[in-house]
Amino acid sequence: MKDVYPDGNCLFTSVCDQLRVRGDFSFTPRDLRHAAVDFLRENPNQDDGTPLSEFLADEERNWEKYLRSMSRDGTWGDHIVIWALAHVLNKRIVIYRGDKELHKTIVEPTATLKKSSTDEDNNTSTTANKSTDLNKDTKDQQDKPLLHKDVYELYLGHISESHYVSLRPMNWREELFEELKRKQTSSLVGINPDSKGLECYKQDVPQIHLTFTMKYIRMSDLIYRLPISNNDDRDNRDNGKRASIEMHIEDTYITMIGDKNKESTKLKVKTLIIPKDTKIYNKSSKKTLTTKDLIMNIQRCSPGSTKLQVVDPICWPNVLDEDNCLIQLNDPSWFPESQSKVTQLAFQCEWPDASEEWLNRTRRFNWPKQEVIDEIKVCGCRVIPKCVPTRVYPSSEWKFTFDKAEEILEENAVSEDQLCCLLIVKIALNSVMNNLFTIQQLKHVLFFLCEETEEGKWKTELAECIWIFLDRLKECLTCKQMPNYFMPCLNLLEKAEDEDDTFILRCIECIDIIQNHPFVTLYFICDDSKLVSFDMKQVFNTLVEDSRQYAFKQDIDTSVRHCFLPIVAEGVSIIVRLNRYMEALDKCQKATNHLNMLLKEGKKLQVEDVISHVICLSYRDIDKWMFAFAADQTLGTLFTETVCSGRETVSFFDFFGPLQTTLRTESSDIPIPQDLVSNHNLPETICYGLEILERICPREVYSEVMKFLLSNHFPKMVENGGKFPLTMRYVRMILDKIKVNLPKKME
Question: 10-182 belongs to which CATH class?
Answer without folding.
Answer: alpha beta
